[in-house]
Amino acid sequence: MLNLSRDMGIDLGTANTLIYEKGRGITFREPSVVAIKNDSSKRPLAVGSEAKQMIGKTPGDIVAIRPLRAGVIADFDVTQIMMKHFINKSFKRNFFTRPRITACYPSSVTSVEMKAIEEAIYLAGAKNVFLLPEPMAAAIGAGLPVEDPSGSMIVDIGGGTTDVAIISLGGIVANKSLQIAGDELDSSIVSYIRKEYNLMIGDRTAEQVKIEIGSAYCTGDDKSMKIKGRDLVTGLPKILPVTSAEIREAISEPVNSIIDAIKTILEQTPPELASDIMDKGITLTGGGALLHGLDMLIRKETDLKVTIAETPLDCVAIGAGMVLENLDKPGYINALSFSKKMK
Ligand SMILES: Nc1ncnc2c1ncn2[C@@H]1O[C@H](COP(=O)(O)OP(=O)(O)OP(=O)(O)O)[C@@H](O)[C@H]1O
């Protein structure tokens, strides 16, 4: 039968939203941020990168909001505005071509939160909505053989959540979702700099420090950089040099929580699957996988091979889109929670 609709996989992430279109690959990538007028109209003024530039710099009548927190919808209306904007920007809607969309959710979300994600996507113009657990999408997008009767281990470290899962035969055998990921590392850097140096820095500066000189493990190539903030004693702007070693100390607590979650899941893994994991190792996805030295630290702590996926930031969106391309494969159908609702 002629199918006039186009298919999309969406990674509606806490930090970034990505869209994968069937046959075209990743066609859209923007920060999940909306700047709105701070009055009763709640008029959107900027969405995506333009809005991210405004975080921490807006005048009183404008607020830059990240509508998703810890991987779930914290502000439904703003999420809907954002989704509508993103879907329309990436895909010109018309009567025949409302897209079928697969969206991902962290494995810890409640059914109410899942419903909210589904609803926001229908309202943004989808014809059908399929929901897929984030670690499953990440594993498919990283090219792991999720349909095989063999265990694969995925650790997806995003902005708001870290999902650790063992997958076999198209299903999740064991999993843990932590609300500790990239954002928490940024907050730990802000707190450390404030506590050690009485210097107040913003979340965006902290993220920049983490990306430029941050590391989870001492690999012998430490760096340093100068950061700008406000001195809490004098109230004046100040420049401070910081080193990789300091940032490693600042983020050690959340990094250790991620390592503990990995160990907990390994302990819960059935023996047959554990032996597969010993052979294949652990695959890291999500932006957090790019934290310098994290793969080495996990290898040291678990004694397992650790591989960073080829395009870690894209895996969830790619996996979500690939599911729609493979709806006839039983392993992939198992992975989906299919909603037949049509609007
Ligand atoms: N090179 C890097 N080093 C360390 N962290 C990084 C790097 N690049 C990106 N990140 C972090 O990755 C996070 C974003 O990752 P990603 O886009 O996978 O998250 P998300 O899918 O939006 O979040 P979630 O899955 O929690 O909803 C941010 O916290 C960002 O700071």
UniProtKB/TrEMBL annotation:
<feature type="binding site">
    <location>
        <begin position="159"/>
        <end position="161"/>
    </location>
    <ligand>
        <name>ATP</name>
    </ligand>
</feature>
<keyword id="KW-0963">Cytoplasm</keyword>
<feature type="binding site">
    <location>
        <begin position="287"/>
        <end position="290"/>
    </location>
    <ligand>
        <name>ATP</name>
    </ligand>
</feature>
<comment type="similarity">
    <text>Belongs to the FtsA/MreB family.</text>
</comment>
<keyword id="KW-0133">Cell shape</keyword>
<feature type="binding site">
    <location>
        <begin position="207"/>
        <end position="210"/>
    </location>
    <ligand>
        <name>ATP</name>
    </ligand>
</feature>
<keyword id="KW-0547">Nucleotide-binding</keyword>
<dbReference type="InterPro" id="IPR056546">
    <property type="entry name" value="MreB_MamK-like"/>
</dbReference>
<dbReference type="GO" id="GO:0000902">
    <property type="term" value="P:cell morphogenesis"/>
</dbReference>
<dbReference type="InterPro" id="IPR004753">
    <property type="entry name" value="MreB"/>
</dbReference>
<dbReference type="Pfam" id="PF06723">
    <property type="entry name" value="MreB_Mbl"/>
</dbReference>
<dbReference type="GO" id="GO:0008360">
    <property type="term" value="P:regulation of cell shape"/>
</dbReference>
<dbReference type="InterPro" id="IPR043129">
    <property type="entry name" value="ATPase_NBD"/>
</dbReference>
<dbReference type="GO" id="GO:0005737">
    <property type="term" value="C:cytoplasm"/>
</dbReference>
<protein>
    <recommendedName>
        <fullName>Cell shape-determining protein MreB</fullName>
    </recommendedName>
</protein>
<dbReference type="GO" id="GO:0005524">
    <property type="term" value="F:ATP binding"/>
</dbReference>
<comment type="subunit">
    <text>Forms polymers.</text>
</comment>
<comment type="function">
    <text>Forms membrane-associated dynamic filaments that are essential for cell shape determination. Acts by regulating cell wall synthesis and cell elongation, and thus cell shape. A feedback loop between cell geometry and MreB localization may maintain elongated cell shape by targeting cell wall growth to regions of negative cell wall curvature.</text>
</comment>
<feature type="binding site">
    <location>
        <begin position="14"/>
        <end position="16"/>
    </location>
    <ligand>
        <name>ATP</name>
    </ligand>
</feature>
<keyword id="KW-0067">ATP-binding</keyword>
